Amino acid sequence: MASYLFAFLLAASLQAAGSPSLGVASSPGGFKLNNAAVTGSATLFDGSIIETVDSPSRLGLASGASFQLSPNSRARLHHSRLVLERGFADVLPGKASTIEARSLLITPASSDSRGRIALRGANLVRVAAASGAFRVYNASGVLISRLEPGDALEFEPQDQGPAPPSSAFGCVLKKDNKFVIFDQSTRLTVELQGAGIEKEWGNRVQANGTARSTGQPGTATTQVLFVTSLTRLETGGCSEVASALNAQLPNQPAPSTANPATPTSVSTAPPATKSTGMSAGTKVAIVAAVAGGGGAAAYLATQGKDRSK
Fold first, then answer.
1. Residue 208 needs a FRET pair 20 to 30 A away by CA distance; which of 24, 225, 245, 304 works?
2. Does the residue 98 lie in any domain?
3. Predicted TM-score of the model (pTM)
C-alpha cells in the first residue's frame, strides 16, 4: 500500500510540475513503475520505467499508440519512443509509434500493424509481423529491413564504423538506369555500384560490400552497396521479381510505367545457400516467412512466455 501511494504521489507531483502525461499502464496483476510496486494502473510520464513481473502490462499512450509488455520485461517510455530494455513487447493496433531495441528502431507502417519485438541473448533482436507491415532502421537512421505480414526476422547490430558491411541475396536488375538487387529477406531494393555487375545482370547472386544510405527516403533505393565481390547462385530465374519490381532484364526494353520499389507478391523464400545476411552493419536472419502471417502468428501466440530463447 505504501509503495502504491508513493507511485501515486510521484505521478501527482510530476503532473503538478507541468510534466505532461504520456499515457497509462495497467495490469491484472502487479508491476513496477520507477522501481515502486503498483497494483492496477498508473500514469506514465517521459522517462517512466515499467517493469512487469508475473503478469503482462498494457501501455495505452495519449498519442493513440498501444503496447503490451510481457511478463518479466522492462521498458522505458519517452515522448518519441518506447525503449525495450528486457524481455519482449507486443505492438498493438493504434497510432504508429517507434520501439527502440538495442540501437535498432522499429516502426509500424500503419495503424493496423500488430507484431512482437523480443530481446534475445546478449545482442539479438527478433521482430515478428502478424498484421500490417514494419520497418527497421539502424542507429544511423538507415532503413535495413521491411517486414510484411507473416515475416519474422532476427537482427544482430554490429559495430558499424564509417562504412558498415552489407550483403544481399537476390536478382541483379536494372531500374531507373541503375543496377539494383532486391534482397528477399529484408525486402529492400539496393543500388549496386562497382565492377563486374553487368555480367551478372538477370542472375541471382550474393553481393558483398560496404553500404551507405542514399539519403533519399522517397526514392526506389534506400541503400547503395559498393560491391567488393559477387557470387552467382543461379543463372536466370528473375522474371517474376523483375515484373513485380517493374525492372529491366537483359535484352528487354525498359518498363514504361512506375511500380513500387518493394514487391510483396514475390516469394520471400531465400536461396538455399543463404543463412544469414548483413544489412548496413546489422546481421539479418530469417526466422519465419510464411504467406498469410502463419509463421509470425504462431510466434505471437506464445502470450506470457517467450519461447524464442
1. 245
2. yes
3. 0.77
- 143 lies in the same domain as 234: no
In whole numbers, what is the pLDDT of the chain averaged over residues?
A: 79
Matching residue, cell 522474371: 239
The CATH number for 240's domain is 2.40.50
- Summarize pLDDT for 209-240 with one digit per residue, the tens: 887 776 544 445 577 889 999 999 999 999 99
What contacts 181, CB < 8 A, 6 or more positions away? Answer: 168, 170, 171, 172, 173, 189, 190, 192, 205, 207, 225
Cβ atoms of residues 84 and 60 within 8 Å? no
Residue with cell 498508473: 42
- Is residue 291 a part of any domain in this protein? no
From 91, 126, 157, the end of a domain falls on 157
Higher pLDDT, 121 or 308: 121
In terms of Cβ atoms closer than 10 Å to its own Cβ (0-12, 13-18, 19+), residue 56 is: buried
pLDDT (0 to 100) of residue 34: 94
